[in-house]
Write a structure and sequence with these properties.
- The chain has about 450 residues and is of the alpha/beta class.
- It is about 45% helix and about 20% strand.
- It contains 15 helices and 14 strands.
- The strands form 3 sheets. It has a 6-stranded mixed beta sheet, with helices on both faces.
- Strand 6 and strand 7 form a beta hairpin.
- Helix 4 packs antiparallel against helix 5 and helix 5 runs antiparallel to helix 6.
- The protein is elongated and about 90 Å long.
- The relative contact order is 0.09.
- The C terminus is likely disordered.
- Monomer. Associates with the 50S ribosomal subunit.
- InterPro entries: G_HFLX_dom (IPR030394), GTP-bd (IPR006073), GTP-bd_M (IPR032305), GTPase_HflX (IPR016496), GTPase_HflX_N (IPR025121), GTPase_HflX_N_sf (IPR042108), HflX_C (IPR045498), P-loop_NTPase (IPR027417).
- It comes from Peteryoungia aggregata LMG 23059.
Length: about 450
């Protein structure tokens, strides 16, 4: 379908509040907003015939923009034979209906466009349920009928009762019934996720979650680290459903990597609510990798949008400093001067790592840092496992770093390992609660 993209710029628009302690967000350029809106439209295979930045001095309740701009857009629609207008701004149901009448074309706002993209990207049952619920909540307030002849049978006795249920009321009731059904199904999804998390806690593998603005390179980095085959394209919202993979870090620690849905500015509240179960994977993570596209001039504003959503999820400033590592991605796209300058800037900051998910530059350092953050200080030890505790050996290979092994005639096994204090405590529990001594089970 041929489409026209409009980006309204409100002169008196208020800046959104930032999370407590966060630095002031860099202003997002209007050109970047237009480029992003066109990218969103192309993500669902629309042919963009024209992109316009529209200055709105005083928003109009009926049409948002003035009559002159409406006439200008109408002329462009006729010139390019376009049947769709994408307005990169929230529209009320009345504004949407009036603009469709004026232009004789389909009109969708930013929320509707993102919902459309998510609907196409959802591939699992959970993703489909979440998108359907968000879409129904969005649609519920946009039921508009221009006729009254579909009124149902009059209510009350005789002719004294008023009109019965109208068609619009029936549609709203049907939508509400569908919403209730989807919410119940999603409740089951939440319970299933909680069960999966409970199982993961029994096998205490730490979780590392990738978050970031859409198209920041999360899935490419996820594939580079884990060897997974997640769809990774230069496209907004190329992946939607979260993916989890188990992998072993250089120091031997097994972790679960989680690739989450990309964030975006002005994320519709319907989506935040519907995807709460998915986004809770971020809350459960022991370490969060905030991936930023450093080749994008607006990466500062994008970072502020991500931090704002994390704050809404309950990850405050203190938790961010303890749990988040900033990944400055796509440094391969920078020219040599900016590349070297970025490396120097990152070297002077804590919890910042420059990488290239495409070339692999900095990825080994990233894995080492993740291992250090999750493992803490490693202690070298020689552990002797009795013959009746051989099940512990597989656990050690899975969780610690085993350098040497010696099997004894009595069936016991001695292992030279490196492990953390936490792993040492878990080993003590597995050996029956008895702390090994120098003469018995381990030597330091």
């Amino acid at each position: 379908m041929r489409a026209l993209v409009l980006v309204p710029v409100l002169k008196q628009a208020k800046a959104q509040p930032l999370p407590e302690g966060a630095p002031p967000a860099p202003s997002r350029s209007n050109e970047a907003r237009l480029e992003e809106a066109i990218g969103l439209a192309r993500a669902i295979d629309l042919t963009i015939v024209q992109g316009l930045i529209v200055t709105v001095s005083q928003p109009r309740p009926a049409t948002l923009m003035g009559s002159g701009k409406i006439a200008e857009v109408k002329a462009l629609l006729d010139e390019f034979d376009a049947g769709l207008v994408i307005v990169d701004h929230p529209l009320t149901p009345v504004q949407q209906r009036n603009l469709e009448k004026e232009w004789g074309a389909k009109v969708i706002d930013r929320t509707g466009l993102i919902l459309e993209i998510f609907g196409r990207r959802a591939s699992t049952k959970e993703g489909t349920l979440q998108v359907d619920l968000a879409h129904l909540n969005y649609q519920k307030g946009r039921l508009v009928r221009s006729w009254t002849h579909l009124e149902r049978q009059r209510g009350g006795a005789g002719f004294m009762g008023g009109p019965g249920e109208t068609q619009i009321e029936a549609d709203r009731r049907m939508l509400q019934d569908k919403i209730i059904k989807l919410e119940r199904e999603l409740e089951q999804v939440v319970r299933t996720r909680q069960l999966h998390r409970a199982k993961r806690r029994k096998v205490p593998h730490p979780i590392v979650a990738l978050v970031g603005y859409t198209n920041a390179g999360k899935s490419t980095l996820f594939n580079r680290i884990t060897g997974a085959g997640v769809l990774a394209e230069d496209m907004l919202f190329a992946t939607l459903d979260p993916t989890l993979r188990r992998m072993k870090l250089p120091h031997g620690r097994t972790v679960i990597m989680s690739d989450t849905v990309g964030f975006i500015s002005d994320l519709p509240t319907h989506l935040v609510a519907a995807f709460r179960a998915t986004l809770e994977e971020v809350l459960e993570a022991d370490l969060i990798l905030h991936v930023r596209d450093m080749s994008d001039p607006d990466n500062g504003a994008q970072s502020a949008d991500v931090l704002r959503i994390l704050d809404d999820l309950g990850i405050d400033e203190k938790e961010r400093s303890e749990r988040i590592i900033e990944i400055w991605n796509k440094i391969d796209r920078l020219d040599p001067e900016n590349h070297d300058g970025l490396l120097q800037k990152a070297a002077g900051r804590e919890n910042v790592l420059p990488v290239s998910a495409i070339s692999g530059e900095g990825v080994d350092t990233l894995l080492d840092v993740i291992s250090q953050r999750l493992s803490g200080v490693l202690t070298e030890a020689t552990i002797t496992i009795p013959a009746d505790k051989h099940a512990v050996i597989s656990w050690l290979y899975e969780n610690a770093v085993v350098s040497e092994r010696e099997d004894h005639e009595d069936g016991s096994v001695s292992l030279d390992v490196r492990l953390t204090d936490r792993q040492a405590q878990e080993l003590e529990r597995k050996l029956g609660g008895k702390k090994p001594t120098d003469k018995e089970d381990w030597e330091r």
